[in-house]
Amino acid sequence: MKILVKNYLDLDKTQSDEILKIRNLKHIVNASLNQNEITKSQHENFIISLKNSKNSHYFAIFSDDEIIGGVHFVLKNEPTWGLFFKPNTNAILISAITLKFLEFCFKRCEILNASVKKQNENALKFDKNFGFKITSNDDNFYHLSQRKDEFHYHLKTELMQKIAKIADEFMISFDDLS
């Protein structure tokens, strides 16, 4: 299986349309901070805005030349990250991609935050498995955080060691991306 990571800015029109189609899948919309379906015009304007941003990193994930999802890292006041994948994407592959992406993020910040909808128990468990802890919550979301030193310590756990080995087999890399 060949895994490719590609910046949204480098996607061709067909690929850009495909990432929008995946983002607008019902299960992804329902789990997103912004629960509105994104129009093609909004998506195109968003891509244009990324050209002028050094703080926002959005990547499409390809498996054997098919887009399977996306990940993002926004380095503003509070660095945040997120991800989405097509249904039925292999959970081990998602974990391997996530590990490599978190390594990418923690090279650029000291603390990383995420928000998870309260009814999305799978996402909450997933983030906790990667060492994130709930720092607060409101009516709709759990807010999670992790420091770089906590992440590096968590990498030593048996689960993270297994995921790292798999990630290396897939040869997933965000290192050459901006």
TrEMBL record:
Superkingdom field: Bacteria
Classification via InterPro entries: Acyl_CoA_acyltransferase
Protein name in the entry: GNAT family N-acetyltransferase
Source organism of the structure: Campylobacter gastrosuis
